[in-house]
Amino acid sequence: MSVYVDNARIPYGRMLMCHMLADTESELHEIARAIGVARRHYQGDHYDVCLSKQREAMKLGAHLVGSREIVAVRKRFRELAR
């Protein structure tokens, strides 16, 4: 599985959020479901997840990446979707 979470810390209320992407849409939805993130939070090519969900995703094999890597993953995802 090729799922990625970035090291962003985006404030949202009292939470800090990061981005979760994958090489394929099916992988992304599969891990989101596994960590308890509802499909309604899907944002077209990624999920914004709180840091506790980030840790859960990493326990299931998601890779922690920096901002440059997550942008590259997003670009690949969009190209494959075309």
Any chance you could write out the topology, listing elements then pairs?
Layout (H helix, E strand, L loop, with lengths): L2 E4 L3 E3 L2 E8 L2 H10 L12 E4 H9 L3 E3 L1 H15 L1
If you had to describe this structure to a student in words, what would you say it looks like?
The protein has helices at residues 25-34, 51-59, 67-81, and strands at residues 3-6, 10-12, 15-22, 47-50, 63-65. The chain is α+β, with helices and mostly antiparallel strands and 82 residues long. It has one domain (3-81). Strand 2 (10-12) and strand 3 form a beta hairpin. It is globular, with a radius of gyration of 11 Å. The model has no long low-confidence stretch (mean pLDDT 93).
Q: Which key features would you list for this structure?
A:
82 residues, alpha+beta, 27% strand, five-stranded mixed sheet
Short description:
The chain is of the alpha+beta class. Helices cover 41% and strands 27% of the residues. The chain contains three helices and five strands.
Global Rg: 11 Å
Shape: globular
Query: What percentage of the residues does DSSP assign to strands (E)?
Result: 25-35%
Number of domains: 1
Tell how many strands the DSSP assignment holds. Answer: 5
Distance between the termini: 21 Å
Number of helices: 3
The assigned structural class equals alpha+beta
